[in-house]
Design brief:
Length: 174
């Protein structure tokens, strides 16, 4: 279909843009096909799964910190609720952080910061342990030896070698 003959584009005043069929191409479109190919690559799907699992993991860690870890720390420090600790900068007295926020008072919310900081530490430690374990598994896979030592000169020699490239000694099959 020629650009000038497209009645829909002509009526909309967009005949200069060309036919939508040319933009889309075959089978749903050239651009859409390229996007589909991009989105279906393995690394893209792995990244999407990682982001989703990471978000869920973050919520679990936040709950662990605020509901399990911080109450005992607050109890040992003499305070029952750590997330409700703040410094009031407005000069008025407020019993809770919620009251201060409702009144629009300026506050420094150090208890909320401590909760977020402990969240970060736990997530960073969990990621460190995960990467440490992955590195161990990679090293175990590399352990499969591809060389052996020459019994005469103790140089590294390929496993299938019948003669040492360093001292030219005849080697027995491994």
């Amino acid at each position: 279909m020629a650009t000038g003959n497209d009645p829909i584009l002509g009526n909309l005043g967009m005949a200069h843009m060309g036919s939508p069929k040319a933009f889309l191409g075959k089978k749903g479109g050239r651009m859409l096909g390229e996007f589909r190919d991009f989105a279906m690559r393995g690394s893209m799907l792995d990244m999407a799964v990682g982001i989703i699992v990471g978000a869920a993991f973050g919520r679990v860690v936040s709950s662990f910190v605020s509901d399990i870890l911080m109450p005992p720390i607050g109890l040992f420090s003499g305070h029952s609720d750590f997330s409700n600790k703040f410094i009031n900068l407005s000069g008025h007295a407020y019993a809770t952080l919620a009251e201060a926020k409702a009144a629009g008072a300026a506050t420094i919310n150090y208890g909320v910061f401590f909760n977020a900081f402990f969240d970060f530490l736990l997530v960073a430690f969990a990621v460190f342990m995960l990467i440490r374990q992955v590195n161990r598994l990679k090293n175990e896979q590399k352990v499969a030896a591809s060389t052996r030592d020459c019994p005469f000169c103790l140089s590294a020699v390929a496993i299938k070698a019948t003669r040492c490239p360093h001292c030219t000694s005849a080697l027995t099959a491994a």
